[in-house]
Amino acid sequence: MRNLTESNLTEAVLAQTAGCQDARTRRALQSIIRHLHAIVREVEPTPEEWLAAIRFLTDTGKTCDENRQEFILLSDTLGISMLVDAINNRMTAGGTESSVLGPFYVEDAPARERGTDLAAGDPGHDATTFRGRVLASDKSPIEGALLDVWQTAPNGFYDIQDPAQPRMHLRARFRAGAGGGYEFHTLKPVSYPIPTDGPVGNLLALQGRQPYRPAHTHFIVSAPGYRRLVTELFAEGDPQLDRDPVFGVKSSLVVDFKPDGRDAQGRAHFLVEHDFVLER
């Protein structure tokens, strides 16, 4: 492998993958190499531009920690996350549509009883009840289905971003009851900006893109024998619905937050009624 040129370098690099024993990994590596080399040939970066790209990726890695995943955020804002989601969630039986997981999911949220108010300690903010059923595609109920939910506080920050919030604030796991029913109380979600203080924020600014996500609440719904559903419910009427920087909005996931008087704490109260449908 001497005297490689622009015309034969790609094939020389591809030849080095022959020793990869796993066929799936070998195919992925070869595809990545071909596409990266094609990008370089198309863009023809200068050495300074190449180094700037390396520094961007380095800074992205340095921004990641146990509470923040900047690479997921980068994937989200480039539409990669939703493309992976679309490929892996082609609907075959009328199940609820999926959406992005996002960079702020936390495993092992506390288990709560149905009907728990996750926002009992948040006076002065609009409250919401989520209510519905978890069903199979044939509309039969899935008793015992697990719903993992999380969202930001009214200041637009998740608990792991905000030291002022208690750990696991507005996060919980619930079991669907008889008839597949679920119900819990929380705050009305708000529109909020994705983090812009890191390299992904700089990349958005470079493109002239706005960082605000429409108001939403995250859900993971699962049950034995069914495909795990990662999705979000978005607030109808939010001005950011058609400008989501992570491309996660789907019309079927936009729901009405119906005004429902006031709750026991005197907070303005809204009701969301929505059924989740899982595919076998």
Radius of gyration, CA atoms, in whole angstroms:
22 Å
Mean pLDDT: 96
Report on the biggest sheet. 5 strands, mixed
Task: Please count the helical segments.
Answer: 6
Overall structural class, as computed from helix and strand content, comes to alpha/beta
Query: Into which percent range does the helicity of residues fall?
Result: 25-40%
Which stretches are poorly predicted, pLDDT < 50 over at least 5 residues?
none
SSE series: HHHHHEEEEEHEEEEEEE
Beta fraction of the residues?
A: 15-25%
- Count the E strands: 12
Distance between the termini: 51 Å
Q: What gross morphology would you assign? A: globular
Write a structural description:
The chain is of the alpha/beta class and 280 residues long. The chain has 6 helices and 12 strands. A hairpin with a 6-residue loop joins β7 and β8. The longest helix is centred in the N-terminal third of the chain and has 21 residues, at 23-43. The chain starts with 8 loop residues before the first helix and ends with a strand.
Question: Main attributes?
Answer:
single chain, alpha/beta, 25% helix
Condensed summary:
With 280 residues, the chain is an alpha/beta fold. It is 25% helix and 22% strand. Strands 1, 4, 10, 11 and 12 form a five-stranded mixed sheet that branches. A five-stranded mixed sheet has the order 3-2-7-8-9, with no helix packed on it. A two-stranded antiparallel ribbon has the order 5-6.
